[in-house]
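It would be a great kindness if you could assist me with a short task in structural biology. The matter concerns a single protein, recorded as an amino acid sequence and a row of backbone structure tokens. Kindly check, if you would, that the fold set down in the tokens agrees with what the sequence suggests. Thank you for your consideration; the sequence and its tokens are set out here:
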Amino acid sequence: MSLKLTTWMPAFVLALSFAGIGCLSGCDKDATGMQLSGMQGTAMWHVTISDPPAGQDEATLSAGLSDAFARSGKMLATWDNTSEIAHFNAYQGTDWFAVSPQVAEASDMALKLGEQSGGLYDITIRPLVVLWGFGSADAEMGKVPDQAAIDAARVQVGYRKLQVRLDPPALRKERPDLHVELASLADGFAADQGGLYLESLGIHNYMVEIAGEIRTRGLSPRGDDWHIAIEKPLDTGRAIQQGIRLENAGLATSGDYRSFFMHDGKRSIEELVAVEAT
């Protein structure tokens, strides 16, 4: 069975809609058009352009896409201590902190997703993520934190402790030690920026994919919808679960089948949530 999306949304908006599905993006093997690829940080990106405009060579387009991806990283990448969001995290005040319109819009969307999910999606969760052994090379995986450590980390967490102002764009934290983590939006945001760059050149039939986050516009090189392969959630090996078709749509996926917590020989997100909440 295939799924056809006919209403476009930015790729990062769909991050929760497809949660739990690993994505192996791809184009039809017999497709033509221009194929571009490269690296942004540790993430691989692929772009297919169905009808590349005359006078635009691959090297120029690749350089422009790389620049668009790099600019998005300078906004949202917490691993880059020169990024906008890293500067905000390092700020130890509680006054309004000026940011770009893009960072404000992404943060505003994240807070709305937090409300819609009843707090299950929370971009301030990093203290607990690190405590449970994720996101830090120094953390100890597989060890349940004691309750005192959990309680101390939870004091620093809460998306409602962050405020967003769109005009003029700025962020404000209730606590100086609040940490905003936008990694869950960053790759989809980068895909959107890559797409906007192509559209600025008059390119309207393309697919942009970076680290499994996808933005499509128009038609594939074959003249139909874009065909995307969804990866089967296997602990080892790689295989395709099914294909879907995208039309002017974004797609983002996530899952725990390659990054997870083991406790007493079991892998159980629900169990860990129950432990964390006690």
The first strand starts at residue 4 and ends at 5. Residues 92 and 156 are 13 Å apart (CA to CA). The helical segments are 58-76, 84-90, 101-116, 126-131, 147-155, 183-200, 269-277.
